[in-house]
Amino acid sequence: MKNISHILVPINGKPSDEDALQVAFAFARKTKIKVTAVHVVEVKRALPLDMDLATETTQGEQLLERIEEFAQHNACHIEAELLQARSAGVAVVDAAYHLKADLIIMALPFRSRFGEFNLGETSNYILNHATCRVWLVRDSYDTMEPAA
């Protein structure tokens, strides 16, 4: 794959995160590609953007620690960042741009809405606005969750 030196993997704590990370690690091990995982704590519009969300921040930090352990177990190095934003999609696109990521690899749960597969707001935003390549690692049908 040409010109890939940095992969960004957004994580949200779902089991499918590991699938997206495995794909990123497969490339990183072969070609020394840098991998960064980001977790976004979304802040409701009614609250100030810089509000201290202690519970969500602690949960996010614990998730990132588990991701770092998962990377070590898979013989890979990963950098992990916790972001706070109004929208996860916007935060991921901005992070990819500022980190100069060449590729976003993200897990996508199988969601159904009105009997049809539903991409979801965050994934849709990232696909429409990312300035780099985006790969989706979609769950199988048997892991379906209802659309929000």
Task: Walk me through the structure.
The protein has 148 residues and is of the alpha/beta class. It has a single domain, classed as HUPs (Rossmann fold, 3-Layer(aba) Sandwich), CATH 3.40.50. The protein has helices at 16-31, 54-73, 88-98, 121-129; strands at 6-10, 34-42, 79-85, 103-108, 111-113, 116-117, 133-138, 145-146. The strands form two sheets. Strands 3-2-1-4-7 form a five-stranded parallel β-sheet, sandwiched between helices. A three-stranded mixed β-sheet has the order 6-5-8, with no helix packed on it. Helix 3 (88-98) runs parallel beside helix 4 (121-129). The radius of gyration is 15 Å and the shape is globular. The model has no long low-confidence stretch (mean pLDDT 86).
